[in-house]
Amino acid sequence: MFKxxxxxxxxxxxxxxxxxxxxxxxxKVIKRSLLFMSLILPVFILQDMCxxxxxxxDNWYNHETNAKTGKPFHYLWxxxxxxxxxxxxxxxxxxxxxxxxxxxxxxxxxSKINIYIIVDPDxxxxxxxxxxxxxxxxxxxxxxxxxxxxLAVLANDxxxxxxxxxxxxxxxxxxxxxxxxxxxxxxxxxxxxxxxxLPGHPLFKGVTKIYLKEVSDINLTGRAKxxxxxxxxxxxxxxxxxxGYVFAIGDPWIYNEYIDHDxxxxxxxxxxxxxxxxxxxxxxxxxx
Length: 288
Hints:
The chain has 288 residues and is of the alpha/beta class. The protein is built from 6 helices and 11 strands.
């Protein structure tokens, strides 16, 4: 009996030794795994940060200041009122992009972004001393697009946009805006701004009706192509320029007031079109 007890104690001791060895081995494996993860995880994070497209929204040519608050407003990511682009910014973020607001677009600024959006450059009515697009800016932006940058220009209609200097930039890509106002809308008669004859373009995938109010049309030359034509007038255009891409429309179009159905009737699909535009612009950042 004593012998059996001794054997049992011995077996229990051996089992404890083996169990401790396994625990120690597991701990070593866990430590090695944690060390490996601590080394490799930052690589994946850095890679993800580097591959995350950055969307820069201009606040240099469009530099309006709210008279009541003294703060910049109108077509900005941070503007959550009806005049802002906060909802469009949310669409970009939802698709993995980073949004930023940029000043004068010199080479250093442009090198940090993948998509550059210019909206409604100021007239002297909007800003006493506007920042006009100058020849140096034209050279910098053109070179950036040629090397793979994605430029989106959402202008405005005749009285509300500075076309003289903007067209010096746009002419580099075979486009110029006309100083006119099309699609005039009276009051809440939203159907006056409806576009329903939409082409088979990615911008209008799954879209049957958009709202486009008081817009300028676009002249095209060279390799620039029309996306949307209405009554012989080009309302939206594009150009694959060098390694880059240029999108143009004569209206700020998808700002907060007219992206959802706060005011627009349910039949309009501006949000879906905004989502399509976002995906279109992002797709060209992957084609470098």
